[in-house]
Amino acid sequence: MLFRSKFATLIAVVLPLPGWADPPESYARAELAFTRANPDFRSLNDETGESLLLSLAGKSGWILNAYYNNTEFVPGGPRTGYRLQSHSLAVGGGYRWGLTQQLFLHAGLAYEERGLGGRDEAGAGIFSGIRYRPRRQFELALEAKYLDIGFSDWELLAEVFYYPRLNWFASLRLRDYAEADFTMYELGLGRRF
Hints:
The chain is mainly beta. The chain has one helix at residues 2-14, and strands at residues 27-39, 47-57, 62-73, 84-98, 103-116, 119-135, 138-148, 152-162, 168-177, 182-192. Strands 1-2-3-4-5-6-7-8-9-10 form a ten-stranded antiparallel beta barrel.
């Protein structure tokens, strides 16, 4: 009974909206980001790296995303000069729905790969999120992703975009992994085509 009432409330809120808005214009976006990795456990020290992000979106609502991160870690403890190479790769696709001209939902599937010190894990992820563009210069996004890559994990992604010029942007991004006990901060510059 409780489920039915929550579902009915959701339908009552969504149906009166003035129809699904058209997705924003199609675009291609490329971004290079400086990354600060913060493992929440003591065996690895905080380190820096770089990320490359690519996005495609079509007028019909489809989206394609790719993300690659490369970071080297220095393990804590008495050993010095020893470094662990880490990489992350995510390639995914999905669909976006416009609720209004500024508010969009998106969801999809992704191939995920993580590696640390030569040990790689690969699997799948499923994600959903919301994007809000209150003004032409600003865009906010929040996304949750469930990962199954040899272990199960949840990734929370929060993004802020600033467009000082029509096609150039700066971004600030936080990625938090619940089970891996790991947080990444990214500061990026990119171009929208």
